[in-house]
Amino acid sequence: MSEMEKNKNMLNQKTFLSPKITKATKQLKNHWVLHGLNFRALSDINLLFDKKMSDIDKRIDALPKAPFNPQEVSSSSSSSMVALPPMTMVTTKVLARTGTKDIMQPDVNNMDP
């Protein structure tokens, strides 16, 4: 897969959350209109929401700009990419619980060499 295709498939946090936030805001407005709640309170919530989004943007910008895949560092790296923690490896303690006797089929032991 080319670098361009990889970048197309990646979403940053803001792009991912924006449609969900818009949908929730519309649902809240509809709920408030149906139940006769005032728009002043909705305006206050909207101001709080804008402040929180601004705080999130500042925190995202403050994150270290680590590449998603250190082996494929390019000059076109997006600042919205975040390095993920490495996958957890299975330890020998977990592997010791399952012996080869549990895994092997009985007819394998009876085969001629």
Question: How would you characterize this protein structure?
Answer:
With 113 residues, the protein is mostly helical. The chain has one domain. The protein contains 6 helices and no strands. The protein is elongated and about 50 Å long. The protein starts with a helix and ends with a helix. 0% of the residues are buried.
Short description:
With 113 residues, the chain is an all-alpha fold. It has helices at residues 3-9, 13-34, 39-62, 92-96, 100-103, 106-109. Mean pLDDT is 67; it is low at 90-106.
Query: What is the element string, with H for helices and E for strands?
Result: HHHHHH
Q: Note the total helix count.
A: 6
Tell the overall outline: elongated
Cα-to-Cα separation, first versus last residue: 45 Å
- Helix and strand content put the structural class at mainly alpha
- What does the average pLDDT come to? 67
Provide the domain count: 1
Number of DSSP strands? 0
What helical percentage do the residues reach?
55-70%
Main sheet characteristics = none
Strand content: under 5%
- Which stretches are low in confidence, meaning pLDDT under 50 for 5 or more residues running? 90-106
Radius of gyration: 26 Å
